[in-house]
Structure formats: structure tokens, C-alpha cells
Amino acid sequence: MITAIVLIKTSVDRIPEIAEAVAALDSVSEVFSVTGTYDLVAMVRVPKHENLADIIPGRISKIPGVVATDTHVAFRTYSQHDLEAAFAIGLDT
Predict the structure, then answer these.
(1) What pTM does this model have?
(2) In the β-sheet with 2-10, what is the strand arrangement from edge to edge?
(3) Which domains does the chain have, with CATH numbers?
(4) Are 11 and 53 in contact (CB under 8 A)?
(5) Which long-range contacts does 29-37 make (Cβ < 8 Å, 24+ apart)?
(6) pLDDT band at residue 78 under the 50/70/90 scheme
(7) What whole-number percentage of the chain has pLDDT above 70?
């Protein structure tokens, strides 16, 4: 599974509607409203790199009010949840 972190600039007056539209897309697992240079951060998970083209420039960038995107593809995932699950295997709680 390929994970992409998509930073999204939007029309400021439409952030909630755009966030909902992005979150409704297949392959988008989470959307965060954030402070800073960008307005939203979307987590996109796809099986193949080619799917990124379908979802990011093909769908996210075409949502009315999306001004720009900046995409970062993850090499590895490090998660406290993953570590806790790995160490909890076979242990009774």
C-alpha cells in the first residue's frame, strides 16, 4: 500500500465543504484542517503509484475551491499503534 500526504490550499471560505468532498473520495482515509501555509492535509492510500494520478490531480485538484496541492509520498510508516500491536501479540490483557 502506498501512502501519500497531500497538502491542500483552498478558498478559505470553503474549507469545511472542501474537506468533506475530499474525505468522501475513495482512497482518502483522513482529512485534517490545519494551521499554516496549507488549509487541509489528506492521507491518501492506494495500491499502486499510478492510482495517485487518478486521485490527486484527477479528483482532489478538480474539487471547486481547491487552489493547489503539494504531495509527499511516504517511504515507511512508523506508528505507535503498530508498535503496540506488535508487542501485544500473544499477550492477554
Answers:
(1) 0.83
(2) 28-33, 40-46, 2-10, 66-73
(3) 2-88 (3.30.70.920)
(4) no
(5) 37/7, 37/9
(6) confident
(7) 85
